[in-house]
Write a structure and sequence with these properties.
The protein is built from two helices and three strands; from the N terminus they run H-E-E-H-E. The protein is α+β, with helices and mostly antiparallel strands and 67 residues long.
Amino acid sequence: MLDINKSRSYANEGLLREALVKRGLRDMRPLVVRNFEGRWTAVFGADLIPDRTAVRSIAEQGFMVID
């Protein structure tokens, strides 16, 4: 079980998707999910991101990265 409640989140899916585009993360194929509070976040699979520097950057931006 993953605790996504501490990840960067947005009030609706549209705002999350806009943020992903703005941050250059849309093409990283995130899993878009809602947390228990009804807010939207993205979870990224480390295996789907070829650049390890990008993995660190995603995590530093507050999104969850799983291995």
